[in-house]
Design a protein that fits this description.
This protein is an alpha/beta fold. It contains 9 helices and 6 strands; from the N terminus they run αββααβαβααβαβαα. It has one domain: SGNH hydrolase (Rossmann fold), CATH 3.40.50.1110. The protein has a 6-stranded mixed sheet, sandwiched between helices. β5, α7 and β6 form a beta-alpha-beta unit. The chain is globular.
């Protein structure tokens, strides 16, 4: 999509964005513990951070959300004794996630899973700036939290979100694809970060009631794919470097 066409559509897009925010139900973050330990085997300290999808908006309890399901599946897939912690908040873009972590100061971790990006698109953060924010976030996690590897979830196919009207959905989806392409180019330059490949089908059956956030089924799928990625592409190197230290 050309910038000229996006400029022409700007009045419509702004109006749709305002109306969509007003009409969309405001769902709470999932209830329940935000840390725990599960499984048996070598220790793995897991930090999950990011925006509303990391925080479990769309389901009632954390055991139905990404954190609870990912820790369970990761403990089985590696196998490992996973000590997990969720440090996330609704509405954060990538740069704000970094500032949030600096304030909250979670305990050291071996592995971090980052779920951000949709709010970068909503806030109209250019893709190159979003990548710079991801790089700063990864560097902070490495240096301040002792994280050995950072796994980034891709942006979802926003052009399929049932809760977003056209043409806002189409334009935002185009922006999301641009952000994902920039993210993948960047992770290819480093060995301590990676991006999970997902085939998301976003229809009403797998979404929350707002048509925007994941439902339990979609969280389960994402948790399974991320766990498989970690087990096959990350876990062996983490063991070689020594997890659970400090």
């Amino acid at each position: 999509m050309s910038l000229a066409l996006k400029f022409v559509l700007t009045p419509v897009l702004l109006a749709q964005a305002v109306l969509t925010r007003r009409r969309m139900p405001r769902l709470p973050e999932a209830q329940g513990p935000r840390s725990g330990e599960v499984g048996e085997g070598p220790p793995l300290r897991l930090l999950i951070t990011g925006d509303s999808s990391a925080a479990g908006v769309g389901v009632v309890h954390q055991r139905q959300a990404l954190a609870g399901q990912l820790s369970d599946r990761l403990a089985q897939a590696c196998p490992a004794r996973v000590a997990w912690r969720l440090t996330a908040r609704t509405g954060l873009n990538t740069a704000q996630t970094l500032e949030f972590l600096r304030r909250e100061v979670p305990p050291p971790a071996d592995l971090a899973v980052v779920v951000t990006g949709v709010n970068d698109v909503i806030d109209q953060v250019p893709a190159h700036r979003a990548v710079s924010a991801r790089e700063a976030l990864a560097n902070h996690l490495r240096q301040a939290q002792g994280v050995q590897h950072v796994v980034f979830a891709p942006l979802p196919p926003i052009h399929h979100l049932p809760g977003v009207p056209q043409p806002l959905r189409w334009v935002s989806g185009t922006d999301a694809r641009r952000h994902n392409a920039a993210l993948r180019r960047w992770v290819a330059t480093r060995s301590d970060v990676s991006c999970v490949e997902m085939e998301l089908q976003l229809d009403r059956d797998v979404m929350a009631v707002d048509g925007f956030h994941p439902g339990e089924t979609l969280y389960r799928y994402c948790a399974s794919v991320i766990a498989e990625h970690i087990a096959t592409a990350v876990w062996q190197r983490l063991q070689a470097e020594g997890t659970g230290r400090g």
